[in-house]
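Quick check before the chapter quiz. The format below is the same one you will see on the exam, so make sure you can read both the input and the output lines.
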Amino acid sequence: MASVPAIPVDEAVAALSTFSLEDEQPDLQGMGVTLVSGRVATESPVDYDDVPAYQLSLVEDTSAVTQLDNLLMEGKGLVSILYTYRSCVKALPQLSESMKDSQADLYLETYQVLDIEIGRLREIQRWQSSAAFKLAVDMHNYTQSIKKLNGPSVTHMWAMLRLLDILLQLDHLKNAKASIPNDFSWYKRTFTQVSVNWPDTEQMREELDDLQIFLSTRWTILLNLQQEIFRVNGVEDIIQVLILFTLECLESDRVLVYSERHTLLRVLPVLVVLATSGEKEGESIFKKIKISRLMNIFKLETLNLETGVDVALKKRIKENVYLVVVAGFQLLSEWTGRVWQQSAWKFSRPAKDSERFDAERSVDVTDYEKVVRCNYTAEERKALIEAIGYIKGVGIMMERADTLVANTVWESIHTQLQDFVQSKIPTMLRTSLRRKKEIARLLSDMRTIAADWQGKSPQVEKVKSRKLSREDNLVPPVSYHPRAAFPTAAQLHCLQYLIHEIVTGGSPKKAGGFFTASETEVPSSELRQLESFFNRLAFFPHVIDYRATLAHVTDLGFLWFREFYLETSRVIQFPVECSLPWMLVEHIMDSSDIGLLESILLPFDIYNDAADQALRVLKQRFLYDEIEAEVDLCFDQLVSQLSDQIFIHYKSRAASKMLDMSFMAAVNDHEKYYVLPKRYDHLFRIRRVKMLGRNVDLAHLIRQRLNKVFRENLDFLFDRFESQDLCSVVDLQRLVEVLRLTHELISEHIAIDPFNLMMGEISETISLVSFSGRLASQVLLELQNDFFPNFMLCTTTQRFVRSSKPPKRPIKRPSSPFAEPSFLFGNIDLNEAHGVVAELHSKFFGLPHMFAVVKLLGSRSLPWLVRALLDYLSQKILVMEPWVEDLRDLMPKAISLPPYDAGVEGSLNHFTEQLQWAVNYDGRPEMLQGLKEIGSLIFWMSLLDTAMRETETVHFMQVVPWLGVVPNKDGQLQQLLCDDNYSPVVSLFKEATDEVLYSTSRVNGPAFQSMAKQAEVVDILYMNNLQTGSVLDYTLTYLHAILSRSRVKWDLPPKSGLIEITLSKEYHRIYSGLQYTMLQGVPPSVQSLLLAYSQISPEGDSFQDRYGDAVAWGGCTILYLLGQQLRFELLDFAYHVLSASEAESLPSAQELLIERSKSGSAAYSMEVVAFLANAKKARRLNNYVFSLLRACSPHEDRLASMVKQSGVVVHSFKYPVTPSLLNHLPFKGDEDEEDANVHGPSSTTGFGVPTPDQTSCIEDLLKNSRNITESPL
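Here is the expected output.
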């Protein structure tokens, strides 16, 4: 068997010291004491800020009190400094003869050490001056000559007295500390030596002289206070008020704690001295204050000590302890008896109006339900819970005090017994009962039974027949040593019997009573003594049997038993909803009273008491089994419902915090959106709940339930997202953020599973080989099946909106799950508020949605999604290749461009005849749909690129300080290393590791070495990830590589190498024909003019309403990547028509409509006007797309890269990261008169692109931006 290496003892001890044995669990066990925690009642979070709300003349007074309190806080700290001050000179080393040359260095070091301590003394000097000044100012404000305020309040007088006490303590401590002058003399000597060459030391010397006078003069602080106070006459009046206030507090025992009483006793002599030292000296102060009152105060405070112990005080304390124990038992007995009585009263008066708690489970209302479930109102249930809390709370406190007070209680019982039998009985035998032989015999028997002679001989009293003198009647004081010994049950029984015989004379009937009989032979004084002792004898057995009595008076098990009603109802057992303990638990959980939550476990003590009675009293196992079964069921329900309530509460709080402040300010009833805090945090610390002898970890069960609820909520959110379109991703991200904040709030009190772990489990990304995940797969599915086919792009707003045209293929989604309010935003009100916010993003897809996608998918799933979308793009290109070849085959051999002399209408007629192949092509809708989906994908990638760049910018700003990355003179990033050639984060961990390894402290060195190595790995990983590429650039490069592999199918260059004008069949010629057909129809701008001037609404929808701007993005991107942009701009059919219109100087659409409305005809038809309007917007949109493509993927950089077969982009050299296309929004200005007149809020789907002049400005700006060196941002 291999030997286990021994662990050194010092390391084992050091390891044990790291364990914490403190238990922070609130005490709820034993007898079910309620939770008691929170701030002390005397601590106010607002101090005196709410005083003005009461509209009293206390504003100035309160301000002064606040200033005094601040001085008090600072003064207490100075008192602590002065009290704990120790001499520094004694710790300084002494120089040997051989080190005399280093004397200057010793003086300098000594001065530096002492200067810190002397600085604190200067602070005391400064503070006492300001405190004395403030105290004097407050007193002057109340003088008769000034009378600024009505009079000092009680709080103000207490503050002044406390501040005076602090000054007095400081003065006493300063006088008592002999080390302070000694250190100051050393300090002044070293200052003289080291300040020889210092300039301008006169002021410092003056300060030292003042400090020396302050420290060397006795009672300097009080003298300074006296000087400050008596700068104004009439201060004696306020001093007399303070003296009278102090006397009244001391005489009437108005103070509660001893520290306040000591404060009054300390300041009273000072006040008297100050009052007699003013102008009205002598006996004038004692006209209002009798000197006898002052003398009585100090006489009362004098303690008569005997051998260092106040015997009378000790005896009185023990008597008080006994009385407190008896009073506790009496209170518990009374409270439990009242609960008994209320239960009996309810049983005797069943409820008249009763309803079934569950119509499906119960047919009739049983008698037990009428007396329990239907018979307690909400107020009565609350009162019963509070009563149970009082009983169990006092019971647990008395149970804890058992071992502490046991000896004291026993000693008190012994003292009372011995005092009676050894002091009171001898007096009776010598006086009134000396001639009654029978009574004297009984009294002697009592002494014999109960007297504790402690080894001495018993004192026998001889009854004499002669008349005794006064001296003979006096009984000498009996001295006995108190012992913690209690009488036996037999002794108590005998004593009670003997007293009964003495009082009744053996004939109770003759006496007519016990201690009230008039025929008794015992005199009245002795009868009262016997009665008092007899009553105490009745308490002794219960006090002696402390635990049994305590268990009896706190037993509430009778509230569960229902045997009589089981018999009469002829049922096996009642449902748990009819059980009184569970009714109380349900009332606590359903109640709006926050304070009742702390008593949630109190009703389960009823089950514990009932189970104890079932086993120990009734001795019936089946009763215990029934109780155990009910407890198991109720506790499971408690954990489940309590966990759900905790989750709902904290989720409502999180949702309330997530609401926008502007929204809260706009609504009228914003109070309903606030969630009041509840004290669930105390329940999270309960690890031991005693249930029928078992310890149950409540916190662990709540933790398990909360982990399950969080996972169920995440699964519900994902199911809900899968039943909606992609526009709901913002709502999903908001719900996830609320759930994450809920997790953070709960994690402050209890350790539950990490949120990222639960998120990974539900999204199915927890596996090492899983890169897609549930959310990423759903996003891809929505993009392919619904988003790209059915959403239109609006470049102006940079949003996708759903097309009004119904989809060709029905979209199949699972049904939406049932929405629990707790699984959304907590409650109904918050669901409505957040629903209003979610509705704002439910009808479109834009940049907010893309940020939500980036946050939800994260860096783990986004690469997979990008790669999947690129595969989708590749498939679309392959699908469109046959359509391109078909269109090329349908094209005529030559398509000529008409001369400008033909005019606009002639050009339109010419092109309409020449381009019938594009109109009549059967696959035209599919071709346009394919271009639309490609354009939508490219623009979607641009939105993704913008969102990722912003996220990476935040990450970059957080990382670069630790890596030491800064820009150089050329604007490029460089890493500044520390002196050890490491980055700041690595250098920091290595320095900490070296410090730990070379120190003598017991610290885990290997752990620090491991962290230093991990820091090096982190440095390498983050440095490699700082300069990330662009998703849009990668997409364009990937698309170019795909087109390059199948370039023959997309591009058919002329064999001559020259540009073919009429015979070209390249892709740009095909797209020009398709674009020409797309420009047919009335645009929204012209539609509004027609409706305004001609009251005509054109029928049908335009191409823009069906496809949006995405076709232009797809077609122009392919043109640009094929290198056909310039040929397209030169030979495009629509551009040729626009050139003809510019040469012909056509009027605007508004002018034509005005002319038609006046004369009934116009020079040009409405079709020509509509075509020109569409062509102008199409040209601006094309120019905008080309300019941004040139900025994002210049030809020279694009040709310098390649894409492998796997899809990986390989750059032959680094190229600068150019601005994203979304950094420049489309412009709306500088349009022609027609567009300026018709562009309105309704035309939101038009081509919003810059004019040619603005496009050229953008190109110049982007060209200049390309000169900027590469930046990770």
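If your answer matched, good. The chain has a mean pLDDT of 76.
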